[in-house]
Amino acid sequence: MEDLIISYSRISKGLRITYIFFAICMLAGGIALCVMENSYSFRFFMGLFYAIIGVFTILKNTVWQPVPTLQITNNTIEAKKIKIDWTTVSKINIGLAYIVFLTNGEQKQQKLDLSELLYKDIKDVKSKIIELCEQKNIPYHND
């Protein structure tokens, strides 16, 4: 079964590759300017500045990627504030812009707020939750 990942702060892969390419060019140009200068002149510091910006841009587009807003897998549901393991879920109530998970034999409730998501993404999340409930034989109903 395919995972559902919703992330609003990520940029496309093609754009990231373009940024990395230009960052490598800035880094190489900055290092070349620093090496060719014999004294600590304006061009040396501009080269150093370009090299630092290039390194930060490379790191921002490779290592420092933001975490997804919502991720639903076959094992867990992870959002900003909650993490729910599917093995502990006993029942689900689906509301207009929220989903309540009753866990540990309906002793504990965890509410997943969907109000920050786009309408299309709310529909996708609800259909994915219903699909997983039917697969795992977990009862659900609409509020």
Keywords:
four-stranded mixed β-sheet, PH-domain like, single chain, 8 strands, alpha+beta, 24% strand, 143 residues, rod-shaped
Q: Strands of the biggest beta sheet: in what spatial order?
A: 1-2-3-4
Question: What is the average of the pLDDT values?
Answer: 87
CA-based shape? rod-shaped
End-to-end separation in angstroms reads 27 Å
The secondary-structure class comes to: alpha+beta
CATH architecture of the largest domain: Roll
CATH topology of the largest domain: PH-domain like
Number of strands: 8
Fraction of residues in β-strands: 15-25%
**Rg from alpha-carbon coordinates:** 23 Å
CATH superfamily of the largest domain: Pleckstrin-homology domain (PH domain)/Phosphotyrosine-binding domain (PTB)
Topology pattern, helix = H, strand = E: EHHEEEEEEHE
Runs with pLDDT <50, length 5+?
none
How many domain regions? Answer: 2
The helix content, as a percent range, equals 40-55%
Largest β-sheet summary: 4 strands, antiparallel
Work out the oligomeric state of the chains in this entry. single chain
CATH class of the largest domain: Mainly Beta
Helical region count?
A: 3
